[in-house]
Amino acid sequence: MMCGVCGSGKTTYAKEKEKEGYIRLSIDEEMWKLHGRKGVDYPDNQYDELSDKVEAALRQKMLGLIKDEKNIILDFSFWNKESRDYYKNIIANAGGTVELVYLKASKEILKRRLRQRNLSLHANSPFVISDEILEHHYHNFEEPHEEGEIVLVQ
User: Fold this and answer.
1) Which long-range contacts does 12-20 make (Cβ < 8 Å, 24+ apart)?
2) What is the pTM of this model?
């Protein structure tokens, strides 16, 4: 399970794990593939509903992969403890083993990375993250503490 604020390097890390044979599941990529660009191919106000449906489908796929004893990397943000605990329970109940990888980055690093990322929108960077959006995400992020996390400082 990847954990971190937007721009912390979750997808970069997850793609490296893919090279090791992990199957990467990404809400952003599935949203892009199935629905296109937010505010262009579908209205902004439909994002949450569509994202919830995509996440539910990926969760089912994850359960099948766990049953098949595959290594999976969940390229989600897991920005709050409630969602982390929810997925940890689902994974454990399905017979999987959980590893929580937290990519910790300063706000300055996040801003620098997001300025660069915002130059090119694509499946793993589907919309611009402004400084205001980053502030919101940064201040609402619930940093894991004593959750068995592996912390990778950026």
Assistant:
1) 13/101, 13/103, 13/152, 14/73, 14/75, 17/73, 18/73, 20/71
2) 0.85
Structure tokens at 84: 């982390």
| Bridge partner list, 101 | 2, 150
CB 86 within 8 A of CB 113: no
Q: How many residues are given for the chain?
A: 154
Q: Which residue has the tokens 């994850």?
A: 62
State the CATH number of the domain containing residue 94: 3.40.50.300
**142: number of Cβ within 10 Å:** 13
Mean per-residue pLDDT of the chain:
91
Structural domain count of the chain: 1
Give the C-alpha distances (Å, rounded to integers) separating 33 from 38, 75, 140. 12, 15, 28
Q: Which of 154, 12, 143 is nearest to 78 (CA)?
A: 143
